[in-house]
Amino acid sequence: MVVKTHYLHWEEAVKTGWIPLDTGSDRWLDLCIGFWNDGLYEPGPIEELSAVGDPTLLCDTLWATYNADDRPDGQTRRSMSVGDIVQCEYDYYICRSVGWQQIDVKENPNDPC
Predict the structure, then answer these.
(1) What is the number of structural domains in the chain?
(2) β-strand 85-88 against 91-95: which pairing, if any?
(3) What is the pTM of this model?
(4) Is a pLDDT exceeding 60 seen at residue 113?
(5) What are 45-73's pLDDT values in tens digits?
(6) Domain assignment of residue 48, yes or no
(7) Is the CB of residue 43 less than 8 Å from the CB of residue 4?
(8) Which domain holds residue 58?
Protein backbone atom coordinates (compact mmCIF):
# COMPACT_ATOMS: atom_id res chain seq x y z
CA MET A 1 0.00 0.00 0.00
CA VAL A 2 1.24 3.49 -0.81
CA VAL A 3 1.45 5.61 2.33
CA LYS A 4 2.38 9.28 2.49
CA THR A 5 2.99 11.67 5.37
CA HIS A 6 1.84 15.30 5.40
CA TYR A 7 3.47 17.70 7.85
CA LEU A 8 1.61 20.68 9.31
CA HIS A 9 3.43 24.01 8.95
CA TRP A 10 3.40 24.86 12.65
CA GLU A 11 4.83 28.33 12.19
CA GLU A 12 1.86 29.36 10.06
CA ALA A 13 -0.72 27.54 12.19
CA VAL A 14 0.54 29.17 15.41
CA LYS A 15 -0.04 32.62 13.85
CA THR A 16 -3.77 31.80 13.91
CA GLY A 17 -3.74 31.04 17.64
CA TRP A 18 -3.53 27.26 17.20
CA ILE A 19 -1.33 25.44 19.67
CA PRO A 20 0.36 22.09 18.96
CA LEU A 21 -1.51 20.41 21.79
CA ASP A 22 -4.34 18.03 21.03
CA THR A 23 -7.05 18.99 23.49
CA GLY A 24 -9.17 16.03 22.43
CA SER A 25 -11.88 18.41 21.30
CA ASP A 26 -13.69 18.58 17.99
CA ARG A 27 -12.62 22.23 17.72
CA TRP A 28 -8.93 21.25 17.67
CA LEU A 29 -9.65 18.67 14.96
CA ASP A 30 -11.72 21.17 12.95
CA LEU A 31 -8.84 23.67 13.08
CA CYS A 32 -6.42 21.06 11.73
CA ILE A 33 -8.81 20.16 8.92
CA GLY A 34 -9.18 23.86 8.15
CA PHE A 35 -5.38 24.16 7.95
CA TRP A 36 -5.38 21.21 5.53
CA ASN A 37 -7.96 22.93 3.32
CA ASP A 38 -5.95 26.18 3.51
CA GLY A 39 -2.81 24.42 2.26
CA LEU A 40 -0.80 24.53 5.49
CA TYR A 41 0.41 20.93 5.14
CA GLU A 42 3.63 20.01 3.34
CA PRO A 43 3.72 16.69 1.47
CA GLY A 44 6.26 14.34 3.02
CA PRO A 45 7.85 11.05 2.10
CA ILE A 46 6.05 8.33 0.19
CA GLU A 47 6.46 4.76 1.43
CA GLU A 48 5.37 1.40 0.08
CA LEU A 49 4.29 -0.65 3.10
CA SER A 50 2.65 -4.03 3.44
CA ALA A 51 -1.00 -3.59 4.34
CA VAL A 52 -1.95 -5.96 7.12
CA GLY A 53 -5.16 -5.33 9.04
CA ASP A 54 -5.85 -1.98 10.64
CA PRO A 55 -4.43 0.99 8.65
CA THR A 56 -3.53 2.75 11.89
CA LEU A 57 -0.81 0.10 12.29
CA LEU A 58 0.77 1.58 9.15
CA CYS A 59 0.50 5.00 10.78
CA ASP A 60 2.24 3.64 13.87
CA THR A 61 4.99 2.21 11.66
CA LEU A 62 5.59 5.60 10.04
CA TRP A 63 5.48 7.28 13.46
CA ALA A 64 8.21 4.96 14.73
CA THR A 65 10.31 5.42 11.58
CA TYR A 66 10.08 9.21 11.43
CA ASN A 67 10.61 9.75 15.15
CA ALA A 68 13.68 7.53 15.48
CA ASP A 69 17.04 9.18 16.12
CA ASP A 70 18.34 7.68 12.87
CA ARG A 71 15.27 8.49 10.75
CA PRO A 72 15.85 8.58 6.99
CA ASP A 73 15.41 12.35 6.60
CA GLY A 74 16.47 13.52 10.04
CA GLN A 75 18.71 16.29 8.72
CA THR A 76 16.08 17.80 6.44
CA ARG A 77 12.68 17.27 8.08
CA ARG A 78 11.27 17.47 11.57
CA SER A 79 9.92 14.37 13.29
CA MET A 80 6.23 13.48 13.08
CA SER A 81 3.99 15.14 15.62
CA VAL A 82 0.43 15.62 16.78
CA GLY A 83 -1.58 17.21 13.97
CA ASP A 84 0.40 15.56 11.16
CA ILE A 85 -1.56 13.47 8.68
CA VAL A 86 -0.84 10.08 7.13
CA GLN A 87 -2.48 9.21 3.83
CA CYS A 88 -3.05 5.48 3.24
CA GLU A 89 -3.99 5.48 -0.45
CA TYR A 90 -7.34 7.36 -0.36
CA ASP A 91 -7.87 7.40 3.41
CA TYR A 92 -6.43 10.04 5.74
CA TYR A 93 -5.52 9.72 9.43
CA ILE A 94 -4.55 12.56 11.74
CA CYS A 95 -2.17 12.02 14.61
CA ARG A 96 -3.92 12.67 17.92
CA SER A 97 -2.27 12.84 21.33
CA VAL A 98 -3.13 9.15 21.66
CA GLY A 99 -3.46 7.20 18.43
CA TRP A 100 -4.87 8.08 15.03
CA GLN A 101 -8.26 9.26 13.86
CA GLN A 102 -9.58 8.83 10.34
CA ILE A 103 -10.66 12.15 8.85
CA ASP A 104 -12.64 13.11 5.79
CA VAL A 105 -10.56 15.48 3.64
CA LYS A 106 -9.82 15.90 -0.02
CA GLU A 107 -6.34 15.63 -1.55
CA ASN A 108 -3.65 17.94 -0.19
CA PRO A 109 -3.82 21.17 -2.21
CA ASN A 110 0.01 21.48 -1.98
CA ASP A 111 0.75 17.96 -3.21
CA PRO A 112 1.98 17.85 -6.81
CA CYS A 113 1.45 14.06 -7.03
Answers:
(1) 1
(2) antiparallel
(3) 0.84
(4) no
(5) 888 877 666 888 889 988 888 888 887 76
(6) yes
(7) yes
(8) 2-103
Render pLDDT for 14-25 as a digit per residue (tens, 0 to 9).
887 777 678 888
> Is 113 part of any domain?
no
Residue 26 — very low, low, confident or very high, per pLDDT cuts 50/70/90? confident
Q: Are 41 and 85 in contact (CB under 8 A)?
A: yes
- Alpha-carbon gap, residue 113 to 111, rounded angstroms: 6
Q: Give φ, ψ of 101 to 5 degrees.
A: -130, 130
- The C-alpha atoms of residue 70 and residue 58 are separated, in whole angstroms, by 19
Question: Alpha-carbon distance 1 to 12, whole Å?
Answer: 31
Number of alpha helices (DSSP H) and beta strands (DSSP E) in the chain: 3, 5
**Residue 18: phi, psi to the nearest 5?**
-70, 145
Strand 41-48: give its sheet, edge to edge. Answer: 41-48, 2-8, 85-88, 91-95, 100-103
